User: Fold this.
Amino acid sequence: MKSTIEELGPTRVRLAIEVPWGDLDHAFGEVYKELGKQVRVPGFRPGKVPNRVLDQRIGRPVVLEQVVQHAIPEVYSEVIRENQVRVLGQPDIEVTRLDDNDTLAFTAEVDVAPQLELPELDSLAVTVDDVEVTDEEIDQQVTVMRERFSMLTGVERAAQDGDFVSIDLEAKLDGKVLEDGSTTGMSYEVGSGNLMEGLDDAVRGLSADESKSFQTALLSGPDAGSQADVTVTVRSVKEKELPELDDEFAQTASEFDTLDELREDVRTRLARSKVIQQGAQARDKLVEHLIETVEVPIPENLVDREVEWRNQAFERELAQAGMDWNAFLQMSGVENREEYDAEQKKNVEEAVKTQFILDAIADAREVTVANDDLSAQIMAQAQRNRMSPEQFAQQLQQSGNIAEFVADVRRTKTLAQLLEQTTITDASGNPVDLEALRPKTVQASAGDESASEDSTEAAAEDGTQAAPAAGEDIGVKAVTTEAAEGATENTEDVDKV
Assistant:
């Protein structure tokens, strides 16, 4: 078998392959075996029809066509393996020669991962925000804690922001009550704005047993976008009473005896959470730096396919929620579909660039993935998805995404090693030592990427600002932000080798 590779561009090649007739024996055997089961010839038992009879019965050209269809995928895969071509997506095949009992020749044009020129990676440096905890931030977290111990007391007055009201709702379109458009006894916090547009303005100022009508746009269902007439009736008004902010509250809400001790603990937790966020910020800035400094050609077909795949998946989610694109765009505040698609394409391009760069660095540094790496990542991902490691591993196997998962773990490991070697300073010029986070977060060293929820739970406890999800504390899991995560986990073409 002969093969040549012609570069058509930085991300596309043409393979020219010639197959001697003798190398097609296996394909002929499989085709004749299948045809022998399907074709009924008088005088012969099923599966015992001679090959020459099958040729006469169904025609030699038909047999050759099926042999070609059977042989090309196997031959193509063998050539790809032998030449270590990292292909992206399916090839465009063209049979250029088919001489019976002589030669099969064909070409395959396919997108491939680009060869990148990597910059010097031994002196990487990024700057992150300072860790500064203000009294206002502490007040906000303590207020959240007070909210947990608040009491609701009925009042004989009109509703105002912050009150909780019990309301009845009835929505009509063209005078007809909408299906699922009525509810009674719903509890709602005035001023929260989390139910429907116009509701707060209508409820504000109403006392018990008073009603008001208003119009609002429907966000879901077959009539999404239409203006519905809604009548709201207030049944009761209750105000929220927060506990006094004193030592007694500290003892009730925490293990501390005084309010000062409680506030100092909140300060410590906020500071620790922000240090963790420094790690995540360092990861993101490191990736941004790599994207800016490394020239990465991108196969346009790959980006278009990924954007199309994401849009189709999202359309199914919208349909399940009873929404369409117009309703979603209106709710999300995006100007139009073109703006949304442009942002999607930008995210996918950055994700693909990130994967190519990390793959190139991993190749240059000969980064390997051990069983311990896979086990640790499976545990971390299972934890994030709230399932057992066994369930997650089984899901990977059933979906056929093991190769993509291994590639993602390799990129993750590569990024972790880069982050370890990067000089990180805050805006004030102070060095940031992510090593100090290791005992309480994710170990970024090679072979240990298991996630511990202790850090995130501790940072979020008592209303303090939540840290990144387990496995993302200092950039060990995520390659970049959600854009890259979506591409590495959902773009099969990028990882297909």
In short: The two ends are 22 Å apart (CA to CA). The chain is about 45% helix and 20% strand.
